[in-house]
C-alpha cells in the first residue's frame, strides 16, 4: 500500500509540473465569446442609453450576424452594377432609360404595381447616390442590428421605405423614386430620438457630439437634395425631399419606440401599439389617396 501511494504521489507531482509549462487550451466558443464582447462594448456605448448598458454584456450574441442590413446592401450593389454594365445606358451619373424601365423603380404612372412602393429602395441613380446611402446604412444600420437584431431593424427600415414612397405620392405626386433614403432616414430618426430622449443620462460632451454629428449629416444631405430639386439643371434627376422627411418621421416614431424597448417585448408595450396604429392610419389614408384622389390619373 505504501509503495502504491508513493507512485500515485510521484504521478501527481509530474502531472502538476507538466501543466505549469503547457498552457491550457481555450475553447473555440470561449474565444469567440471574448472577441464578441470586445466588439460589442464600444458599439453598445454608441447605440444604447447608459441605463441599458449594464445588462447588455449578458445578452451579447455574435450569431447570427447582422444579416438584414448586409443582405439589403449586397442586393443594392448587385442591382446597381446590373443596370450599370448589363444595360446599354451607363448609369454612373444620371438616371437613364435603363433604370427608368426597371420593375423596381417607383413611378407615379405605375403605382398600381404595389410592390414598387417598396422595391424602389433597391435601385440608385448614380455612384454618388448609392455610395452615400450605403455609407450611412452600413455605419448606422450594422451597429443597430448587432444590438437590436434584424427583425427590429428591418421593421424600422421598411417602415421608412414605405412612408417615403407613400408620403411622396401625396405631397409630390409626379415624382419618381429610387434609392434607400427612406429606410436610412428611418434608422437615423430612431437613433436621433433615442440620443435626444436619453441625453441627460449621458456624458454631456459625448451626447452632444452624437447629436451634432447626426444633425450635420442630415442638414448636408437635405441641403444637397434641395439643390438637386430646385437649383440643379433640369437634365439632372430630381430628389424627393418629401421621401426623406417621411422616412425620418417614421423613424422618430416607430424607430424610437422599437429602439427604446431594448429590454422589453415589443408586443407587450402600449407605446409600440400607439405608434403602429398611428402609422397604419397614415398608410391607410395614403392608400385611399392614391386610389381615389391622386392627380396623376
UniProtKB/TrEMBL annotation:
It is found in: Membrane. It is an enzyme of class 3 (hydrolase). The keyword Mitochondrion does not apply. The chain crosses the membrane at residues 67-85, 117-142, 154-171, 177-196, 208-227, 239-259, 271-293. One of its GO terms (cellular component) is plasma membrane. The keyword Ion transport does not apply. Signal peptide: none annotated. It catalyses: Cleaves type-1 transmembrane domains using a catalytic dyad composed of serine and histidine that are contributed by different transmembrane domains. GO terms for biological process: proteolysis. It is a multi-pass membrane protein. Involved in regulated intramembrane proteolysis and the subsequent release of functional polypeptides from their membrane anchors. Known substrate: EFNB3. Belongs to the peptidase S54 family. This is Rhomboid-related protein 2. It comes from Sarcophilus harrisii.
Amino acid at each position: 500500500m505504501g509503495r502504491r501511494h508513493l507512485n500515485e504521489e510521484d504521478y501527481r507531482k509530474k502531472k502538476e509540473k507538466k501543466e505549469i509549462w503547457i498552457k491550457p487550451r481555450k475553447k473555440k466558443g470561449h474565444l469567440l465569446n471574448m472577441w464578441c464582447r470586445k466588439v460589442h462594448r464600444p458599439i453598445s456605448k454608441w447605440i444604447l442609453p447608459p441605463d441599458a448598458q449594464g445588462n447588455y454584456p449578458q445578452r451579447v450574441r455574435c450569431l447570427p450576424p447582422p444579416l438584414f442590413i448586409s443582405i439589403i446592401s449586397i442586393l443594392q450593389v448587385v442591382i446597381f452594377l446590373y443596370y450599370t454594365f448589363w444595360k446599354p445606358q451607363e448609369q454612373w451619373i444620371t438616371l437613364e432609360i435603363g433604370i427608368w424601365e426597371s420593375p423596381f423603380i417607383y413611378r407615379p404612372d405605375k403605382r398600381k404595381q404595389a410592390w414598387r412602393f417598396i422595391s424602389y429602395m433597391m435601385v440608385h441613380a448614380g455612384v454618388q447616390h448609392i455610395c452615400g446611402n450605403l455609407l450611412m446604412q452600413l455605419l448606422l444600420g450594422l451597429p443597430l442590428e448587432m444590438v437590436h437584431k434584424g427583425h427590429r431593424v428591418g421593421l424600422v427600415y421598411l417602415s421608412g421605405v414605405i412612408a417615403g414612397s407613400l408620403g411622396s405620392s401625396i405631397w409630390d405626386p409626379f415624382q419618381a423614386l429610387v434609392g434607400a433614403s427612406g429606410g436610412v432616414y428611418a434608422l437615423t430618426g430612431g437613433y436621433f430620438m433615442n440620443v435626444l430622449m436619453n441625453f441627460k443620462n449621458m456624458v454631456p460632451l459625448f451626447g452632444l457630439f452624437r447629436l451634432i454629428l447626426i444633425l450635420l449629416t442630415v442638414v448636408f444631405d437635405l441641403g444637397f437634395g434641395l439643390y438637386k430639386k430646385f437649383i440643379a439643371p433640369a437634365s439632372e434627376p430630381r430628389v424627393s425631399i418629401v421621401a426623406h422627411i417621411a422616412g425620418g418621421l417614421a423613424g422618430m416614431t416607430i424607430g424610437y419606440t422599437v429602439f427604446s424597448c431594448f429590454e422589453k417585448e415589443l408586443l407587450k408595450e402600449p407605446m409600440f401599439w400607439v405608434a403602429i396604429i398611428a402609422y397604419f392610419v397614415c398608410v391607410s389614408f395614403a392608400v385611399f389617396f392614391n386610389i381615389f384622389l391622386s392627380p396623376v390619373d
